[in-house]
Amino acid sequence: xxxxxxxxxxxxxxxxxxxxxxxxxxxxxxxxxxxxxxxxxxxxxxxxxxxxxxxxxxxxxxxxxxxxxxxxxxxxxxxxxxxxxxxxxxxxxxxxxxxxxxxxxxxxxxxxxxxxxxxxxxxxxxxxxxxxxxxxxxxxxxxxxxxxxxxxxxxxxxxxxxxxxxxxxxxxxxxxxxxxxxxxxxxxxxxxxxxxxxxxxxxxxxxxxxxxxxxxxxxxxxxxxxxxxxxxxxxxxxxxxxxxxxxxxxxxxxxxxxxxxxxxxxxxxxxxxxxxxxxxxxxxxxxxxxxxxxxxxxxxxxxxxxxxxxxxxxxxxxxxxxxxxxxxxxxxxxxxxxxxxxxxxxxxxxxxxxxxxxxxxxxxxxxxxxxxxxxxxxxxxxxxxxxxxxxxxxxxxxxxxxxxxxxxxxxxxxxxxxxxxxxxxxxxxxxxxxxxxxxxxxxxxxxxxxxxxxxxxxxxxxxxxxxxxxxxxx
Length: 474
Ligand code: NAP
Ligand code: MG
Hints:
- The protein is 39% helix and 18% strand.
- The relative contact order is 0.14.
- The chain has 2 domains: 12-255 and 457-473, Aldehyde Dehydrogenase, Chain A, domain 1 (3-Layer(aba) Sandwich), CATH 3.40.605.10; 260-439, Aldehyde Dehydrogenase, Chain A, domain 2 (3-Layer(aba) Sandwich).
- By secondary structure, the protein is α/β, with parallel strands linked by helices.
- The mean pLDDT is 97.
- Bound molecules: NADP nicotinamide-adenine-dinucleotide phosphate (NAP) and magnesium ion.
- NADP nicotinamide-adenine-dinucleotide phosphate is lined by residues 153-157, 180, 182-183, 212-213, 216-217, 220, 231-233, 236, 239-240, 254-257, 288, 385, 387, 413, 453, 457-458.
């Protein structure tokens, strides 16, 4: 059953992308000393802009600018004054919300519905939330002394939101930052640099160095940074943990995940199906806490899977700027290849693949929403993070088996539970080794609520009062 609908594309004319960008150091855009990299729109493969690839000299300059700003301006500034800048940033994000949403969507590939209704509002909410803490740090219980200069490296899946998660608490606590966005999604970070100028944030408090992995490495290994905050893959997180070991740097790592979404036989099926869809197809499954392992109670597995497939067949995959689109483009050719490769491994392991019937655009990077059934615990598709719109389905008989399977993973970032029984939800949640457990919902975020992992999902918490701890020296 397909619904006819008229395309409703958001206008691109609200964004003004420059052909070429420098680095944002000491409050202004400056030329980098290294090469240039191109960022593309993954839905069309169109080159959007060229950005600088920061080299060692550039990273030195950015860290020095952050140090000067920390020593002379931001560190000594009273919290109530810092708060005013954070509030101002939050309000400018709201004022420029439409532009930021369009920019995020064309650089990243995510549907405008998500960038407009989820990413950008949460970015503003994060700055508002931490602005409120800036003059109340003494009540948070982690001291009031900032650490100094924070080196922050973020991935491409929620470019502006991850920036907000990093920058807002750091600034509220009185630190200055040098942030490196991901190579494929630098544009909203550069727009944020303009917002810092617009907010008249003192020069050097926020510095943005674009580049690829090597720039990130130079930044986190820089001897003059006091704090490293990294969100990205477990593999790179481990390298970073090794490289800062023995230094005086404080580190927080937000890494990968392989969340279980557990559906009990008493769950409201239609609601659970919406939650499963949101859990794995939100942001094309490029979500560290995605519900990528569906654990369904055996007695309802058949009915649930039928309902899920019917729902998946209605997902609209395509132009991310179209307000009707549910699932956008895969962020890069490299990521598309990873998703394809792991899915082929799923086929080879004997799992059964079902793909939503949808037409994919000719140009750009696309992967249709996919479900694997007949998956066993030992399968690589059940163990490794696919980071794409691919769901693995396993079954269980008892709550104890559900808990055992949910925890049988090297990761521990998030989980979902679907049941009518509050007592069952609490009992199961208590036994799950996951930083966040959602009950009868999934992928809900709020700046007041801490987020972070166990095991190979990393350490440290972002968001909430707990998120201040990473940026204060007791
Ligand atoms: P990634 O390869 O680890 O990249 C993350 C960031 O680190 C990028 O800016 C990357 O630069 C940079 N980088 C690469 N090598 C580096 C090195 N040796 N030293 C310092 N920085 C380096 O991760 P990804 O594949 O882009 O992102 C997806 C991963 O992020 C997934 O595993 C996902 O689960 C995780 N994630 C976790 C959370 C969380 O909160 N736990 C949230 C979102 C995503 P380039 O991109 O320019 O190469
Ligand atoms: Mg891009």
